[in-house]
Specification:
174 residues, alpha+beta, four-stranded antiparallel β-sheet, 16% helix, extended
């Protein structure tokens, strides 16, 4: 644990009961959201506090980690996670003999970006080409509405052939 948990001078069980609301950069007022009742009712079911304090002594989930894996086919995976950065998102790169693919997903960064993600393909020591994926509106980048529409509205286009039919569902049990 490099940042959260016991690594601070003040703490509470959750934000609702915290006496350090004005000083805490991570304070979240659960009362501001229309889904407050939904969140609070769930606490009795699973014990999880949706506004739990990031400085709680009981927090022991790693907030910094790295992994390096060498697979049987000699492919190497390197992974790094830092859960306490000043902004969120992902930076992913695939390297191979023919070049590199980079993907950058933006989320809650303190500067403006043109799109939701950037992709770049660079051929080994040759040309590079970049694309920007435009931002979508709605929950989860607009995916929630698209998924609901695909599931519940008739005659929706499935251009990626992602919808499983009843036979595919039954085959799960084979």
């Amino acid at each position: 644990m490099a940042f959260y948990g016991k690594n601070h001078s003040f703490r509470a069980r959750n934000c609702r009961t915290c006496q350090f609301k004005e000083q805490c950069d991570f304070y979240w007022d659960i009362n501001k959201y229309g889904s407050k009742d939904f969140y609070l009712k769930g606490e009795n079911e699973d014990g999880y506090l949706r506004d739990g304090c990031v400085w709680d002594n009981d927090i022991d989930t790693y907030d910094t980690m790295t992994v390096e894996v060498k697979y049987a086919n000699e492919v190497i995976l390197s992974y790094s996670l830092n859960a306490y950065m000043p902004y969120e998102g992902q930076m992913i790169a695939f390297n191979c003999e023919q070049g590199r693919l980079e993907v950058r997903n933006y989320h809650r960064q303190p500067w403006e970006v043109d799109g939701a993600a950037d992709f770049r393909i660079t051929k080994s020591f040759k040309d590079t080409k970049a694309w920007t994926i435009p931002k979508s509106t709605g929950e989860h980048g607009g995916a929630d509405k698209k998924l609901r529409d695909l599931l519940f509205l008739p005659n929706q286009s499935d251009t990626l052939n992602q919808v499983a039919g009843s036979r595919a569902g039954l085959m799960v049990f084979q």
